[in-house]
Amino acid sequence: MDGFAATFSGGWKPSIKSFAIEQAIRDYLLTLIFENHFERFPNLRVASVENGAEYLPDLIKKLRSTSNKMPGYWKNDPVETLRRHVWINPFWEDDVDQVAECIGADRVIFGSDWPHIEALPEPLDYVVELKNFSDEDRRLILNDNVRELITLRPT
Asked: Across the strands, what pairs with 116?
């Protein structure tokens, strides 16, 4: 084990691995949108788990910029396509208010896999991070969004 866990045991220290952890998911989501996968497969849903969410504002900025440079390339607004097809499980230390602003509270999902670095020892301690959300949005984030994600849709 490389010590990349919540206890930082085994001599773990910051590295390129920890610095660039979100680049792969950002590039993957960009590729799905650029290649029109969600238009070709309208029932496709993607959950980004254990990737964090700090990349979202930049991803959305890049999608908007590309859309403005290439009018007519997409049938639908690529940012709205992202918001319709992608669910995000932010790291506990991510700004969940910003994540919901980017993707919508109905696409934020809660999860924990303690003792990994992206989890809390007591998962429900995360509820404190949702203090700015309505009861309805807290219920979405903590429970109902996952139910929506895994509900089969007709083909």
From this structure: 5
Cα–Cα separations (whole angstroms), residue 92 to 116, 129, 134, 142, 144: 11, 8, 19, 13, 18
DSSP characters over 52-120: -STTHHHHHHHHHHHHHHSTTSSSS-HHHHHHHHEEE---TTS-HHHHHHHH-GGGB-----TTBTTS-
pTM above 0.70, yes or no: yes
Residue 40, both tokens: 């070709």
Most confident region among 10-14, 123-127, 133-137 by mean pLDDT:
133-137
| Residue 65: both structure tokens together | 């910029």
Q: CB 21: neighbour CB atoms within 10 A?
A: 18
Distance of alpha carbon 150 from the chain centroid: 16
| Residue pair 28/38 in contact by the 8 Å Cβ criterion | no
- Check whether 139 has a pLDDT greater than 80: yes
**Residue 5 DSSP symbol:** B
